[in-house]
Amino acid sequence: MNLKLRVWRQTDPSSRGRMVTYLVEDISPDASFLEMLDVLNERLILAGDEPIAFDHDCREGICGMCGMMINGVAHGPSRATTTCQLHMRHFKDGETIDVEPWRAAAFPVVKDLVVDRGAFDSIIQAGGYISAPTGAAPDAHATPVPKVDADAAFEAATCIGCGACVAACPNGSAMLFTAAKVGHLGLLPQGQPERDTRVVGMLEAHDEAGFGGCTNAGECTTVCPKGIPLTLIGRLNSDYRKAVTKRG
Amino acid sequence: MAGTGLLLVLFLFAHMAGNLKIFVGADAFDHYAHWLRDIGTPLLPHTWYLWIQRGGLTVAVVGHIAAAVILARRARLARPVRYAHRPKVQGSYAARTMRWGGVIILLFVIFHILDLTTGTVNPVGDAQHPYANVVADFAPSRWYVTLFYTLAIVSVGFHLRHGIFSALRTLGQQTPRGERRARAIALVLSLVLVVGYLSVPFAVTIGAIK
Ligand code: HEM
Ligand code: SF4
Ligand code: FES
């Protein structure tokens, strides 16, 4: 396949970036999007140019490191797919593809397509954990969990923290990520002692990091590689209301 | 956003029910308008209830707009650099047009109060005879007024289609089945409102109400 790529190039956080056009020839339709960028980068290096910086790690859709706006859609055109798992056969030969980094004040660009998602860490640090005594592993049946709760908690726990929800949100909100983390722990017995302080703390950290407010637009769920459901945001809202009413 | 919005939806239903009285006849409609000024009497003096309701609605509208402005401002700050390529693919049309839709509705409400409450821009403008005001308003020769009303009411429909769903979510709706129900409720209520409101101007324009 031959493609025309327009990629955001920015040398460092403080410099001004711009879209740069590259012609990429002879790409296998079976290559992943990141492999296509690898091929382009090899050619750039051979030509003495600076390769395009992008984040990646597992390349199997489980770590949450990769992610870029592809033609304006986070992680590109296939649903429930990370950028590393997106294949070039989803594009047409000769197509022009625009590639941009996640755009959010809370996710400053480090270089090219790499953004700093440290804001997610500050949300997690504000309550995305349980305080459990250490020691020998407890018996598996010591804390019974109803099957429906276990399934729902597991679904929420599949969030890999990629940040696509923020990138797609018209408000630049990280509510889906926050709701996934609040929901995943709040659904389990182990998460109950800190349930109230968790939701309040994580929401405060979310707002402080500079993310926007949620208007239930639903763009996040459509691009989420793990299909985290929008209903979790309703659960977060109800947890938040209960926590604030109790606190008085 | 959810609290003030739902209060305004309650008003919209009460207002629509009142408007539909026009199909009963001129006397019934005018009598209804006079009754509005007498609600609460003799406990409250004449028109007091109406003024209390107007006060309540104003507080709700101002609160609703204030919340919207805060959200819009936060959204702008949260994405200082825009995307070069941004298709409008996902999300519903209704969700994407909440802000502009709200502005259109506000302009409409201002025009509408000058039209049918104060009578300033109404060809008849007789506060004692609202029936005559409405009939004069939507006469075929004033098609542009009817068109503006139609545009505004369709905007209200879109606004509520997302607004009602979003309010239920904010209030804690959180099951997949509930989500399907909330979307269905929002759609049905919006359609009922659009049809109910539009029936009056169109009935006047085609001459079913004279
Ligand atoms: C075709 C549809 C409509 C018709 C025929 C209509 C008719 C009227 C009439 C006759 C009045 C004056 C009642 C009186 O003072 O006795 C009125 C008041 C009012 N209408 Fe409408 N209306 C329509 C749609 C709407 C919509 C969609 C909204 C809101 C978005 C709205 C908001 C109001 C408000 C706020 C007032 C009260 C003003 C006040 O008394 O303080 N109306 N309408
Ligand atoms: S909710 Fe989905 S899109 Fe958002 S960070 Fe988690 S996995 Fe990524
Ligand atoms: S590189 Fe790990 S999810 Fe894409």
From TrEMBL, chain A:
PROSITE patterns: 2FE2S_FER_1, 2FE2S_FER_2, 4FE4S_FER_1, 4FE4S_FER_2
Keywords: Iron, Iron-sulfur, Metal-binding
GO MF annotation terms: 2 iron, 2 sulfur cluster binding; electron transfer activity; metal ion binding
Pfam family, one: Fer2_3
Residues of the 2Fe-2S ferredoxin-type domain: 18-103
Domain 4Fe-4S ferredoxin-type, first and last residues per copy: 150-180
Names of the cofactor(s): [2Fe-2S] cluster; [3Fe-4S] cluster
Domain of life: Bacteria
Gene3D superfamilies: 3.10.20.30, Alpha-helical ferredoxin (1.10.1060.10)
SUPFAM superfamilies: 2Fe-2S ferredoxin-like, alpha-helical ferredoxin
GO BP: aerobic respiration; respiratory electron transport chain
Family label: Belongs to the succinate dehydrogenase/fumarate reductase iron-sulfur protein family.
The protein's name in its UniProt record: Succinate dehydrogenase
The species this protein was found in: Dactylosporangium siamense
Automatic annotation (TrEMBL), chain B:
Keywords carried by this UniProt record: Membrane, Transmembrane, Transmembrane helix
SUPFAM superfamilies in UniProt: Fumarate reductase respiratory complex transmembrane subunits
Entry's transmembrane regions: 50-72, 93-114, 143-164, 185-209
Keyword Transmembrane carried by entry: yes
Stretches of the chain forming a coiled coil according to its record: none
GO cellular component: membrane
The species this protein was found in: Dactylosporangium siamense
Top-level taxon of the source organism: Bacteria
Protein name, as recorded: Succinate dehydrogenase
